[in-house]
Amino acid sequence: MKADSCGTSDYHIGELPDERTLRCAEKFGVPISHRGRQLNKLDFKTFDYLLVMDESNMKKVREYMSTLGLNHENILLLRDLKAEGVLEVPDPYYGVEDDFNDMYDILNQATDKLLDKILMETSNV
Questions:
Q1: Which of 105, 96, 31, 44 is nearest to 75 (CA)?
Q2: The domain 19-123 belongs to what CATH superfamily?
Q3: Which of 46, 83, 88, 99 is close enough to 95 for a disulfide, judged by CB 3.0 to 4.6 Å?
Q4: Contacting residues for 33 by C-beta, under 8 A, at least 6 apart
Q5: CB burial class (10 A; 0-12, 13-18, 19+) of residue 57?
Q6: Mind giving me the DSSP string for the chain?
Q7: pLDDT tens per residue across span 76-125
Q8: Quick one: which of 43, 56, 54 has its CA closest to 77?
Q9: How far apart are CA 42 and CA 105, in angstroms?
Q10: Rounded Cα gap, residues 61 and 118, in angstroms
């Protein structure tokens, strides 16, 4: 299984993650050796799922897909897999350190739900 992260805009291409992200990742034992990159058409062929954090990014992914004549069956809001509460992942960038820890909890729960979905789909094959 392979996972990657990218943005829909070109603001942070080549940059390291925010220092607060790095501290949060270290706190929870998550290794990060990633630099910012932008979504590209190869992503639509490489990944079984394209997961977006919010409706704004969902719109950008769908526009990009339409403009290039691409298709993908599994584009989801990451929190769609968790049926309760807000479906968008809040952006902690303009917040405080605790917002990054809260986001870690949100992403941890959502990715557990994604893994459950993948395991269920592969066991039915």
A1: 44
A2: Response regulator (3.40.50.2300)
A3: 99
A4: none
A5: buried
A6: ------BSSSTTTTPPPPHHHHHHHHHTT--------B--HHHHHH-S-EEESSHHHHHHHHHHHHHHT---S-EEEGGGGS-SS--SPPP-TTS-HHHHHHHHHHHHHHHHHHHHHHHHHHHT-
A7: 998 887 656 667 888 999 999 999 999 999 999 988 989 998 999 889 76
A8: 54
A9: 30
A10: 22
Count of C-beta atoms within a 10 Å radius of residue 11 = 9
Residue holding tokens 């039915």?
A: 124
Write the pLDDT tens digit of every residue in 34-54.
999 999 999 999 999 999 999
pLDDT at 85: 63
